[in-house]
């Protein structure tokens, strides 16, 4: 497995030809009356061509606005990617936004996600952040990954993220 920082011109729909965004969700975390509980919530998440077009536009924008996109490759095929937005935010100007982290279905459990997370954390630290902010999918499996990485519920919620994805879990990772 190899990794690299992606340039804007490398981010095209064809980059995702061998990437499978698939998740069969059966249980999700929800905050009810101030307590986190697991609920039976089932749906299939699988990206199509239109989703990849939107993704490409977002990732290009990340690079063009001072952020970073990392990709991991196996045999020359993209199998994981993660992005951190440029621009520190929050009351105390301590957060950078981990806007995406995805591992192809066929590579989950192989360490790709951990590598991408560490690359993003290192980049954020080098760019002046004290914390990564993550508006994270509420699926039990996704939350288990973030917990294993050392994330916790965000002390300060980003209003834009909450409004855009009200079911997401708002997390932070302290960069030491």
Q: SSE layout and pairings?
A:
Elements: E1 2-5, E2 22-32, E3 35-46, H1 49-64, E4 68-74, E5 77-84, E6 95-103, H2 112-126, E7 131-136, H3 140-149, E8 152-153, H4 159-164, E9 169-174
Parallel strand pairs: 6-7
Antiparallel strand pairs: 1-4, 2-3, 4-5, 5-6, 7-9, 8-9
Describe what this molecule looks like in 3D:
It holds the Pfam family Acetyltransf_1. GO terms for molecular function: acyltransferase activity, transferring groups other than amino-acyl groups. This is GCN5-related N-acetyltransferase. This protein has 176 residues and is α+β, with helices and mostly antiparallel strands. It has one domain: Aminopeptidase (3-Layer(aba) Sandwich). It has 4 helices and 9 strands. It has helices at 49-64, 112-126, 140-149, 159-164, and strands at 2-5, 22-32, 35-46, 68-74, 77-84, 95-103, 131-136, 152-153, 169-174. It has a 7-stranded mixed beta sheet.
Write down the CATH class: Alpha Beta
Q: In the CATH classification, which architecture applies?
A: 3-Layer(aba) Sandwich
Number of helical stretches of at least 4 residues: 4
The largest sheet, given as strand count, sense and whether it forms a barrel, is:
7 strands, mixed
Question: What letter string, H or E per element, gives the SSE order?
Answer: EEEHEEEHEHEHE
Task: Name the assembly state.
Answer: single chain
CATH superfamily: Gcn5-related N-acetyltransferase (GNAT)
Any idea what the shape is?
globular
Strand order of the biggest β-sheet = 1-4-5-6-7-9-8
β content, as a range?
35-45%
List segments where confidence is low: pLDDT < 50 over at least 5 consecutive residues.
none
Straight-line N-to-C gap: 27 Å
Number of domains: 1
Tell me how many strands there are.
9
Structural class by SSE content: alpha+beta
């Amino acid at each position: 497995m190899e990794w690299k920082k992606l340039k804007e011109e490398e981010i095209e729909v064809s980059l995702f030809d061998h990437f499978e965004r698939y998740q069969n969700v059966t249980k999700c975390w929800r905050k009810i009356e101030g307590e986190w509980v697991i609920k039976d919530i089932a749906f299939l998440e699988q990206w199509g061509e239109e989703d990849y077009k939107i993704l490409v536009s977002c990732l290009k924008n990340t690079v063009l606005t001072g952020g970073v996109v990392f990709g991991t490759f196996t045999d020359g095929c993209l199998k994981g990617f993660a992005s951190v937005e440029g621009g520190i935010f929050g009351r105390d100007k301590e957060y950078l936004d981990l806007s995406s982290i995805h591992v192809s279905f066929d590579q989950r459990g192989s360490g790709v996600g951990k590598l991408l997370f560490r690359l993003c954390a290192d980049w954020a630290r080098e760019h002046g952040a004290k914390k990564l902010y993550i508006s994270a999918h509420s699926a039990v499996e996704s939350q288990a990954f973030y917990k294993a990485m050392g994330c916790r519920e965000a002390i300060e919620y980003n209003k834009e993220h909450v409004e855009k994805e009200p079911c997401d879990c708002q997390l932070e990772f302290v960069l030491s």
